[in-house]
Design goal:
One of its GO terms (cellular component) is activin receptor complex. This is Serine/threonine-protein kinase receptor. InterPro entries: Activin_recp, Kinase-like_dom_sf, Prot_kinase_dom, Snake_toxin-like_sf, TGFB_receptor. With about 475 residues, the chain is an alpha+beta fold. The protein folds into 3 domains: about 1-90, CD59 (Ribbon); about 145-230, Phosphorylase Kinase, domain 1 (2-Layer Sandwich), CATH 3.30.200; about 230-450, Transferase(Phosphotransferase), domain 1 (Orthogonal Bundle), CATH 1.10.510.10. About 35% of the residues lie in helices and about 20% in strands. It contains 15 helices and 16 strands. Helix 6 runs antiparallel to helix 14 (about 435-450) and helix 9 (about 340-360) runs antiparallel to helix 13. The radius of gyration is 28 Å and the shape is globular. The chain starts with a strand and ends in an 11-residue tail after the last helix.
Length: about 475
């Protein structure tokens, strides 16, 4: 048992203080912990309670924080109520001023000689022809966040080609930690760079918290920490759930809004620099749902930034290692134009496939079939590049629309299907832009909601009204 305290008890709707009985797996050790702040000598308790198996807490009978000067103090210990008292004992202790002075005076002559020798070596080497630059295999941490606050990995929520995603606890909130092995440092570096690009704070882009490196040498891991959403990815959500007409429109509109913002090239923002246009590895696995089903775009390991006057680089290789199922025809053919608009149109092809996934699980048109990935019916769950080239490029096939979708009352789903077709058009230049998709879905949703008849007698009149309304023109494509 541990003493319990939560400074945010009102917000989290919990008790303020009391006793917490610790429970866990039989082979795991249990601990108590405490966290607090020191505001100019005034101790402000943040939280106390049970802590799961952590080797840093093993055999500690007292709760002692050892960091030099953290923003939030944290300690853990073993034994009932061991977190009743907290202590701060910085380790190691700082050497005295006298000792420091003695060391400085002793090393000064040696240091001056070393500087002279280094300067001589530098001058000599710069007279030689260069032998090329060797990359440092050990990327530096991008933020000091985790050195200041305790972070505990709880459970793996997803696995992917570049690493896995953990649900973790950072003080009194849950966060997501994406863990990359050191071999995938390029993906980690790219995603970190995109997250740290000016203007990346948006309601439909996953909130970035920090990044850092854990461990040393070949055992090192690279972490990216973001906000956590329990519903997980859109793909996983659709596997186990159907959506209503309103929910489908909300998800589709919010994901299109996020992608439209990513695709924008924005001048210098207030307090921030220029935000370049960003192309994304778009698919339903890379869309996360908040608790209210608002979509946020995540996973920027293969994203491409388009700085003015700079080529996008060797991005063709990146696209080829993306998910085959969502590759546009021009990518499958290996015939892409290395210009910004070409990459944005590749995203829009994938938007059409994701919208199809949403429509396929919408209960507005019964019956709802089981969830299938795009082209799963045509090429199965693990298609080869050749399979998709045959189906998508040569036969120009797309996932099929079911008859009930096209006969949906008020023509709402039929109009969504029309938008889907204009997203995955074989002619890349004919595809809609993300902004146009957002505008269309918003208009379709408003029309359906506003014109829903109270009785069946009005259905025929309403259908005529909706189908006679012009959607945003196709000229608003990229």
């Amino acid at each position: 048992e541990c003493l319990y305290y939560n400074v945010n008890y009102e917000v989290e709707n919990t008790n303020r203080s009391g006793v917490e009985r610790c429970e866990g797996e039989e082979d795991k050790r249990l601990h108590c912990y405490a966290s607090w702040r020191n505001n100019s000598g005034s101790i402000e308790l943040v939280k106390k309670g049970c802590w799961l198996d952590d080797f840093n807490c093993y055999d500690r009978q007292e709760c002692v924080a050892t960091e030099q000067n953290p923003q939030v103090f944290f300690c853990c210990c073993e034994g009932s109520f061991c977190n009743e008292k907290m202590t701060h004992l910085p380790d190691p202790s700082r050497p005295s001023i006298q000792v420091l002075n003695m060391v400085i005076y002793s090393l000064l002559p040696v240091s001056m000689l070393s500087v002279f020798l280094l300067a001589a070596v530098w001058m000599y080497r710069h007279r030689k022809p260069p032998y090329g630059h060797v990359d440092d295999p050990s990327p530096q941490p991008a933020s000091p966040l985790l050195t200041l606050k305790p972070l505990q990995l709880l459970e793996i929520k997803a696995r992917g080609r570049f690493g896995c995603v953990w649900k973790a606890q950072l003080l009194n909130e849950f966060v997501a930690v994406k863990v990359f092995p050191i071999q995938n440092k390029e993906s980690w570096q790219n995603e970190t760079e995109v997250f740290q690009t000016p203007g990346m704070k948006h309601q439909n882009i996953l909130k970035y918290i920090g990044a850092e490196r854990r461990g040393n040498h070949l055992e090192a891991e690279l972490w990216i920490i973001t906000e956590f959403h329990e519903r997980g990815s859109l793909s996983d959500f659709l596997k186990g759930n159907v959506v209503s007409w309103t929910e489908m429109c909300h998800i589709a509109e919010s994901m299109a809004c996020g992608l439209a913002y990513l695709h924008e090239d924005l001048p210098r923002l207030k307090g921030e620099g220029h935000k370049p246009a960003i192309a994304h590895d778009f698919k339903s696995k890379n869309i996360i749902l908040r608790s209210d089903l608002t979509a946020v775009i995540a996973d920027f390991g293969l994203a491409v930034l388009f700085e003015a006057g700079k080529p996008p680089g060797e991005t063709h290789g990146q696209l080829q290692v993306g998910t085959r199922r969502y590759m546009a025809p021009e990518v499958l053919e290996g015939a892409i134009n290395f210009q910004r608009d070409a990459f944005l149109r590749i995203d829009m092809y994938a938007v059409g496939l994701v919208l199809w996934e949403l429509v396929s699980r919408c209960k507005a048109a019964d019956p709802v079939d089981q969830y299938l990935l795009p082209f799963e019916e045509e090429v199965g769950q693990h298609p080869s590049l050749e399979d998709l080239q045959e189906v998508v490029v040569h036969k120009k096939m797309r996932p099929a629309f079911k008859e009930p979708w096209l006969k949906h009352s008020l023509q709402g789903l039929a109009q969504i299907c029309e938008t889907v077709e204009e997203c995955w058009d074989h002619d890349a230049e004919a595809r809609l832009s993300a902004g146009c998709v957002e505008e269309r879905i918003s208009q379709i949703r408003r029309l359906h909601t506003t014109l829903t008849p109270p009785t069946s007698d009005l259905v025929s009149t309403t259908v005529t009204m909706v189908t006679n309304v012009d959607l945003p023109p196709k000229e608003s494509s990229i």
